[in-house]
Amino acid sequence: MVPLSTELRGQFPIKFPDSKREAVLSLFLSLILISCSPLRVENGNPDLSEDSNHFLLYQGKPLNGIFVQTNPTLLEVYETEYYKGVPHGRYTAKKQNGILLEERNIRYGQKHGEQVSYFENGKLRQKSEFDNGKPIGEYIDYFDNGNMATYQTFYESGKPKVSKKWNRQGQIYMNHVFMESGESFGRPGSKLCEPVPDSTKVENSK
User: Fold this and answer.
1) Which residues does the annotated region (Disordered) include (predicted)?
2) Residue-number span of the structural domain to which 58 is assigned
3) What SS3 string covers 1-16?
């Protein structure tokens, strides 16, 4: 008969869980996760209200959390981070199946930082940048075929500096340069959109 000590040599004894200890630990971890997760409030919640300054309130206090709105017609969900009752943080627009349509940053109710939107197929639709609500850098949007639709740049004041627009076929129909005073210079769109003659047709007509 093999001694019991020989059978256990090199092996680790099986430890059965202390069910009470694990239950307490599980509850503790759950409370941590809940406390770390931001508050999410759906539009239409009876505890939502507005004060006289249009601050969003939840249970009578300025909302600190995520305000969720759903558009059943477009099948879209919009989530906005709020801080002390005003939009502050990240905003996203998604289809209900999770496809990202738009993401932007908000600083105390004003657009701030990079703003990007997409077509449902994932292609870039628009990108721009703001500084406390003031457009800076470049603004570009695209057609769903990938061609550029609009290109704009701005002065430090946020006023437009250059503005160009194209049709879906890639033909430019507006090209303006703006003075900061508001005066603009550019070619008429009708002249910019005149089609270029096809070389083969020109040869055949001779």
Assistant:
1) 185-206
2) 37-111
3) CCCHHHHCCCCCCCCC
